[in-house]
Every structure is written in C-alpha cells, then in structure tokens.
Amino acid sequence: MGTILAFAGSNSSTSVNYKLVKYTASLIEEHKVSLMNMANYPFPMYSEDHEKENGFSNSLVEVMNDIKSSDGIMISVNEHNGNVSAYFKNFLDWLSRLDKRFLDGKKVLLMSTSPGKRGAIGAFEIANSILPRFGATAVIGFSLPSFHNNFEDGKGITDTELSKAHEQALSKFLAEI
Question: What mean pLDDT comes out for the span 11-24?
C-alpha cells in the first residue's frame, strides 16, 4: 500500500483540474491518497530577494515534506495562454529552491483538462517535459478535452473512450506505486 499526494496546478477555487484530480483520487482504493486544494496555498512570486529576506514559508516546507513522504504524485495542470499557469510555474520555482530534485524517484500521473477541445495539452506537454528535470520517473499522462462536455459532477468522465483512457492511465500509474 503506497501513499499518493494529489493536487491540481491551479489555485482557482473553481478549478476544473482540481475536480479532475479529486475525481481520480476517489477511484483509488488500495492506496492512501492525500488530496491538496492549492487554492489554500498562496505563495508570493518567487524572487531571490524575497527568498533572502523571508526564507521559505511553513506551508511550502510542509508541501515538500508531503511530496518527499509520498510514493506517487498525481497532478492535473491547467493552461494559461498555451503554457502552465503562473501559479504552477511559481510553485515549481519555490519547490526547486528547497531541493532541485524534489521529485526524485517519484512516480507521477500527470493530467490536464480545460473547457476547450485541446484539454490544456500545451500545459500538459510543458509539465511533462519539465517534471523529469526535478527527478520524476514514470510520468504517465492523460488529458481530458472539453471538460464541461465530458465530465459530470457525481459521475465523473462521461465519454466512454475518454473514461477508458483515464482508467488505463490510472491503472498504469498505480501499478508503478
């Protein structure tokens, strides 16, 4: 039985990526899942000056400890203008200042979704390419396009093919834990 840390790369209180990661976490029975809502974790924009003057926040250190103590990480990234959100990029910047290899040896299920037809694939591709730089291994992915057409609260992913692809990605991830 492994421990999985699950969160979205968004700090929005209405994040569709948080809904996707929360739904995915609800499907896991054989592992302990800790779900973080990043709307509760505000971080200032990273700057060397801020770090020198203030150091690292307690909440950042706590998140780092949660990452280090988990066997796997589930992340659903949101997209802003074809890129990961400034919040998620900033979050990675802060974490990497604590430990450049903060994901060392961690298995990652990377997901993305958006209201649009591309399912935040731009952000997904960027996150997929950068997470191994921080030590992530076995990055497994899933992107859900047109969130509002393919997801229903209380039911989950409503499109049969997308639901099957999601289940396969999750099964592959869990087999790695």
Answer: 97
pLDDT in tens, 86-135: 999 999 999 999 999 999 999 999 999 999 999 999 999 999 999 999 99
Q: Which residues are within 8 A (CB) of 53 and not within 5 positions of it... i.e. 6 or more apart? A: none
Burial pattern 50-75, b for ≥16 Cβ within 10 A else e, equals eeeeeeeeeebeebbeebeebbbbbb
Q: Are strands 3-8 and 72-77 parallel, antiparallel or unpaired?
A: parallel
| CA-closest candidate to residue 167, choices 132, 140, 131 | 140
> Residues 132-165: pLDDT tens digits?
999 998 789 999 999 999 999 999 999 999 999 9
Distance from first CA to last CA of the chain, Å, rounded?
A: 8
Residue 162: CB atoms within 10 A of its CB come to: 18
> What CA–CA distance (Å, rounded) separates 134 from 149?
34
Taken as a whole, the chain contains a residue count of 177
Contacts of 83 (CB under 8 A, 6+ apart): 89, 122, 123, 126
* CA 133 to each of CA 8, 92, 103, 156: distance values in angstroms, whole numbers, following the listed order: 19, 11, 9, 32
* C-alpha to C-alpha distance for 9 and 14, rounded to whole angstroms: 12
What pLDDT shows up at residue 47? 96
